[in-house]
Amino acid sequence: MPDFLGDADLIALVVLLVHGLLALTAAVVVSTNRRPSAAIAWILAIVFIPFLGALAFFFVGTGKLPQERREKQRIIDARALGELEDLSVIRLRADRPSWLPSVASLNRKLGALPMIGGNRVILLPGYSGALESMIAEIDLATDYVHVEFYILARDETTKPFFAALQRATARGVMVRVLSDHLAGIMGKSLHDTREFLAGIGAEWHAMLPLRPLRGQWQRPDLRNHRKILVVDGRVAFTGSQNVIDASYNKPTNIKRGLSWHELMIRLEGPVVRELDAVFAADWYSETDAILPLRAAPVAQAPVAELVDAQVLPSGPTFDYANNLKLYTALVYKAERRVSITSPYFVPDESILLAMVTAADRGLDVELFVSEIGDQAMVYHAQRSYYEALLKAGVRVYLYRAPKVLHAKHFTIDDDVAVIGSSNMDLRSFSLNMEVSVLVHGRDFVTAMRHIEDGYRAGSRELRLEDWLQRPVRQKVLDNLARLTSSLQ
To answer: Relative to the CA of 30, which of 39, 131, 297, 385 has its CA 20 to 30 Å away?
Structure first.
């Protein structure tokens, strides 16, 4: 070592070399099978805040669940392909768009579930109305009730739901319950809810539990965000609503007067079996027990009211971003109109390009989001995308406070819709386990349009000239938050 290097210089040189080696290693490791934008964001975080950045990557840098869980997904997919094969012979509607079969084939390849006819799907736009409808079906259960919700909390609003479960177990009905482990802990509802379910004889398991001492560990922010209720394989519910008070029982929400506006659907017909298959997959992942799938008959309704439907599960147990592929394909297939509703809108580059391209093609493209947000980083990140959308001609509607528009759905042209648990954001595309239902039926989409008309009436439209004049401080926060959204 040269004589002119003192101890301080030597230490600085070593630190510089270690830093360079760390940056080089990060560039190789981080960029493997990762979007360039996300890789660059992680590399910059590790370079500029090396120790904290590397520590953050260690905990949340891997976007897949452990190999054992992914293998369970492959096992359940193979089983679904066999057990649900008979569903594909049910006649589909003859008035489907020419492009729909290719989208249905894509979904089946991704999620193993076919598009099937003979279903009845009813919209449940009211918070209390959805709970009441679910309670009524639980009270009719004779065999089993399958409950799976990201957030499941027994509070003053939801006590009637839990009382229905108690009545079901008292009748000898098998009640199986899944809820997300971390969501329950963070909401401080896990212990009381679990104790109640155990007391009535229901079988409850945590989804994606974080219990390191028991060997149960994965990236903490990989969560199961699904909302599913299946009763006797006869009727099912899914959508955006959790089983919790509309304020989410958060003091800050209550103080601000915030309440969540949701949209759920009630389903009858063969598609119920597909939602039950998604529940069975999650049950198998948490318990190693394989549940039988009960066949559901064609729904009893006038032929004009019956719809084609296809369930698409997505999340980090799959090799691909299933929901992102579906949503992008549908926007590109649209010929006249695209209406998107999402409480958290932080799009992948591909879906943003699809929306802008649709507007450039002359389609009517609109986005419904909330005027206010409950999560500051996501709220500011999504605002950073409004300018590009508005410049392309996308109409952006801000649903007025104090309601938080939490519904998650979109409609394509006049006869295709998607509704489920998935937001239009990077978390739902990459990190959360979600479930979506693709529905084909003109009457159903017309009913969805009425829901969207209600959103429009309860919103203020964002104008480009006004948006460009917002304070500089807000612009800085929006753009900084957008950078953090790439750390996936």
So the answer is: 385
